[in-house]
Design a protein that fits this description.
With 328 residues, the chain is of the alpha/beta class. 34% of the residues lie in helices and 19% in strands. It has eight helices and nine strands. The strands form two sheets. It has a seven-stranded mixed sheet, sandwiched between helices. The radius of gyration is 20 Å and the shape is globular.
Length: 328
């Protein structure tokens, strides 16, 4: 169980074999960048509608801010699985801006790293051991069997609709003894001290987000054990769940956690419109003005240092059995 985060006593202290191909390639048509626009936001074109969040600069900034918040929560660890990074081949699923891939390539220059996403929003110039591809992970994978040593995801709750199939694909394409690791934030804001106000706008937002996602078969209020069960069901062994808390705002007493909360707060203040608009208007029939009115209340609550809210956060990893494990 993740430890509680202590709040400040004085909230006024808050600070207002390596491949030699080009590092950025994609083999699909120019329609990938024929972006779609709605309510002033830009959305991906490839497999249009599969992913309901924007891919514009505002969203990319949110993704990077959120990445930094989670990395602080994880104690600056890029992964937890016991993988020896010696000329390994890695797949990052849902790579987004490619920030995790770039950090991994910098830390481990002898590994091959593939990053895949529906949107081509990654750097055009990267380390020679990095390759980005536009692809849909929910379609049949074209990689060889037993191809990767490590498969990584981060915050794919709003992207993957079929987790059992995803883990089945991971089992197939990992070498024996390889690991998959999923790092996830549950869209289930909590406090440890009952500091949510009556009729909390933030918890209401979480509930409506989940209502919208249920329309397309997605679960946002996950737990680490739910991910573990999916991994075990696909055949992974030695599955480990690590639990954390990502604070929202500058209410924590600990300076590092307060910095974490600041990153997460800015990510949410700037990005909550993109997280919300398509879901509520397309799936639940809300009007744009009504969505924006509701989000004013949510932002105000998140900025309050009297509300000690956080996101449950998990790192879950498991190992594909060795051949001798399968035979025993």
């Amino acid at each position: 169980m993740a430890e509680s985060i202590a709040a400040q006593s004085d909230p006024s202290n808050a600070d207002d074999d390596l491949f030699d191909e080009t590092s950025y390639t994609t083999s699909v048509e120019s329609s990938i960048t024929d972006y779609k626009y709605e309510h002033g936001r830009r959305y991906h074109a490839y497999q249009e509608g599969r992913y309901l969040l924007p891919n514009d600069e505002i969203e990319q900034n949110r993704l990077d801010l959120q990445y930094h918040a989670v990395r602080l929560v994880f104690g600056d660890k890029l992964f937890f699985a016991p993988v020896e990074m010696d000329r390994k081949r890695i797949l990052d699923v849902g790579t987004g801006t490619g920030i995790w891939v770039e950090d991994m390539a910098d830390a481990y220059p002898d590994v091959e790293i593939y990053g895949i996403d529906l949107s081509p929003i990654q750097p055009r110039w990267s380390a020679p051991n990095v390759k980005y591809q536009v692809d849909d992970v929910e379609q049949p994978w074209t990689y060889p069997s037993s191809h990767f040593d490590f498969i990584h995801t981060r915050i794919m709750l709003g992207s993957l609709r079929d987790w059992p199939n995803f883990f089945t694909q991971c089992i197939k394409h990992l070498r024996p003894g390889g690991y998959v690791e999923c790092q996830e934030i549950a869209v289930d804001a909590r406090t440890d001290d009952d500091s949510f106000p009556e009729n909390s706008a933030l918890t209401k937002w979480c509930d409506i987000q989940q209502e919208a996602m249920w329309k397309i078969g997605m679960e946002l209020k996950i737990t680490g054990n739910m991910i573990k069960d999916q991994m075990v069901g696909a055949g992974f062994v030695d599955v480990v769940v690590k639990e954390f808390k990502t604070p929202i705002g500058q209410w924590p007493k600990d300076p590092k956690m307060r910095e974490t909360g600041a990153f997460q707060l800015v990510a949410m203040l700037e990005g909550i419109g993109g997280l919300t608009m398509a879901l509520w208007t397309r799936l639940l029939g809300w009007k744009k003005d009504d969505v924006e009115e509701e989000l004013v209340k949510v932002r105000k609550e998140m900025e309050s240092t009297s509300v000690h809210s956080y996101w449950p956060t998990y790192a879950v990893y498991g190992r594909k059995p060795e051949e001798q494990d399968d035979e025993s």
